[in-house]
Amino acid sequence: MPHNKKEHEHETPITPEATEVTETPAAETTPAEASPADKGDTRIAGLEAELAEANDRHLRLMAEYDNYRKRTIRERDGLYKDAQTRTLEAFLTVADNFDRAMLAATTDPDFKRGMELIHTGFTETLGRFGVVKFGEPGEPFDPELHAAVAHVEDGEHEAGIITQVYSPGYRMEDKVLRPATVVVAN
After folding, report:
1. CB-based contacts of 96: which residues, under 8 Å, 6+ apart?
2. Phi then psi for 162, rounded to 5 degrees?
3. Residue 185 forms beta bridges with which residues?
4. Per the confidence metrics, is the pTM higher than 0.85?
5. Between the CA of residue 111 and those of 101, 102, 106, 159, 171, what are the distances in Å?
6. Average pLDDT of the chain to the nearest whole number
7. Spatial separation of the C-alpha atoms in residues 69 and 4, rounded to whole Å
8. Is 135:169 a contact under the CB 8 Å cutoff?
9. Is residue 160 within 8 Å of 184, Cβ to Cβ?
10. Nearest Cα to Cα of residue 169 among 141, 139, 146, 143
11. Which of 46, 48, 90, 135 could form a disulfide linkage to 169, CB 3.0–4.6 angstroms apart?
């Protein structure tokens, strides 16, 4: 950017001659006039203040960028986790259907064995994504994990214990994908 000569007319160029100290008779200066050294000190102090302000702005900008970067990473990870959760939730009905199919009677042992292998592979695949099945009879009822559809008087179980499971629950890490549908003893 070309310099405008008028902008810098008030500044004195620094030359070897300008740095020489010349003595002026004491009678020529008045106390109200500032010496060139005082003007230089004032200018240096002003430049130091500008530099400090520029450094402060720079540090704040760096901190804002770092916060932006971290927030973007968290949001991206959150989007990935949400998409993964929704996808896995869609497969839970398939898991329920496999569980029901495994309970069905069959006279063909090869068919039964093939279904068992598919069921095991599917369950292992869900496990690789961190999906864990829960909700078994005998477990204590937890309203965060279980949805009670009925309460029954049961002499075999204490109050608050699951007596029957209509559909198992699934969770991935600390997130419940689907609560278990259960019957609880009173």
Report:
1. 167, 168
2. -70, 130
3. 152
4. no
5. 11, 11, 8, 42, 30
6. 84
7. 40
8. yes
9. yes
10. 146
11. 135
Distance, CA of 47 to CA of 23 (rounded, Å): 27
Token output for 125 = 């695949």
Alpha carbon distance 145, 176 (integer Å): 7
**Tokens 């499971």 identify what position?**
165
Report H helices in the chain: 16-19, 36-103, 109-128
CB atoms under 10 Å from CB of 114, counted, come to: 11
* Whether residue 11 has pLDDT greater than 60: no
Parallel, antiparallel, or unpaired: how do β-strands 146-152 and 175-178 relate? unpaired
Please, what are the domains in the chain?
A: 131-186 (2.30.22.10)
Q: Please give the Cα distance from 85 to 172 (Å, whole number).
A: 8
Length of the chain: 186
Q: Which residues contact 138 (CB under 8 A, 6 or more apart)?
A: 157, 161, 162
pLDDT tens figures, 103-147: 999 999 999 999 999 999 999 999 999 999 999 999 999 999 999
